[in-house]
Structures are given as structure tokens and as C-alpha cells.
Specification:
alpha+beta, 187 residues, two-stranded antiparallel sheet
């Protein structure tokens, strides 16, 4: 029974930290996804990281919610709300995301940090199987985590695409390139 309480407490604490957008929580942890995007200073100045929620292509799975953290990084996670655009398929989120600008290296990183409960739950299950051998089928739960990781990884690449689109020189409207406007007026 104490293992069930430990499991419940882990999940509740982690969801509370996600809902509160705790900066320490979003930054700290094991990085499972890390994509570096070269971003010269001129391209970084065009960036509007606060518009990523709008720029990320609609997902078949859960939608992302983005929020600027106090240190200027952008944290993101799956929305807890049901899908607005129709029925969304759900999966177990393995990571929480972070978009950080590294001016010293001239790059932007999209990072996926492992959720704490994904690390803790397998140990709790293993201890549970030691005390209750009938709970052995629960050891298949880490397979659900691996499946969730690959689904989430694909979704995180959509965030990478949105950042790259903001950094690109051409402007696209409905997928079609548009000429960049200058200060001159056409006659």
C-alpha cells in the first residue's frame, strides 16, 4: 500500500508543478530530446518565441501549451484540456519541453526533459513485483513510456519546424512564399 501512495504522490506533485509552470521543474532533469538550430543574431531578432503556440502545426495527438518562464526561456507541455479541433488521441507524456536561446553559441535549442514520474514509476513497479509477484504484468508499463516517447518526439520535431520557419528569410502565408517587403513603396 505505501507504494501506491508513493506513486500517487509522485504523479500529483509533478502535475502540480506543470500546472504552476515552475521554472526549476521545466529546466531540471534528464534531457531526452535536444535539437540545436543555428540562429545568427539577425535571425534571432526576427524571432517571436511567444507566437510558437500559434505557429506549431496542429497535432493529431495532444496540443501544446507554451509559456514564457521568468528567465526568458519558453516552457511547453501537452494541454490538459480536451482538443478544441476535434477528438484528440491521448498518450502518456514522457517529457516536458523547453525552448532556449543561446546567444553565445548563436543557436536556439528545443529540449525535451524527462518527466520525473517516468523515472520513478518503474522502480516503484519493480518493488511492487518483489512484494506481490502477481503484479508482474505491470512491468509492461515502461513499454507504454517508450511508445509515448516516440509519439512525443515526433510532436517535438513540429516545434523545431516552427522555430526554423520563424528563422527563415522567406515569409510564408498558407505554405506559399511571399516577397519580403522593404521600406520602399511600389508605384
Amino acid at each position: 500500500m505505501p507504494l501506491v501512495f508513493a506513486l500517487a504522490a509522485t504523479i500529483i506533485i509533478e502535475y502540480y508543478l506543470q500546472l504552476r509552470w515552475s521554472p526549476g521543474y521545466f529546466v531540471t532533469g534528464l534531457r531526452l530530446f535536444n535539437v540545436r538550430i543555428p540562429a545568427p543574431k539577425a535571425a534571432r531578432e526576427r524571432m517571436a518565441l511567444n507566437s510558437l503556440e500559434r505557429d506549431v502545426a496542429p497535432l493529431t495527438w495532444l496540443d501544446f501549451v507554451f509559456k514564457t518562464l521568468p528567465d526568458g526561456r519558453i516552457g511547453f507541455r501537452e494541454s490538459f484540456a480536451p482538443g478544441v479541433t476535434g477528438p484528440m488521441r491521448r498518450y502518456y507524456p514522457v517529457m516536458r519541453g523547453l525552448v532556449e536561446v543561446d546567444e553565445r553559441r548563436n543557436e536556439i535549442r528545443v529540449v525535451g526533459v524527462c518527466n520525473w514520474n517516468v523515472l520513478i514509476i518503474p522502480f516503484i513497479l519493480l518493488a511492487g513485483v518483489v512484494f506481490r509477484p502477481g503484479a508482474t504484468p505491470l512491468l509492461l508499463l515502461p513499454v507504454v513510456f517508450v511508445i509515448g516517447y516516440f509519439i512525443q518526439r515526433k510532436a517535438y520535431f513540429k516545434v523545431v519546424e516552427a522555430v526554423k520557419a520563424q528563422l527563415s528569410d522567406d515569409i510564408r502565408i498558407n505554405g506559399f512564399p511571399q516577397p519580403r517587403r522593404t521600406g520602399s513603396v511600389d508605384a
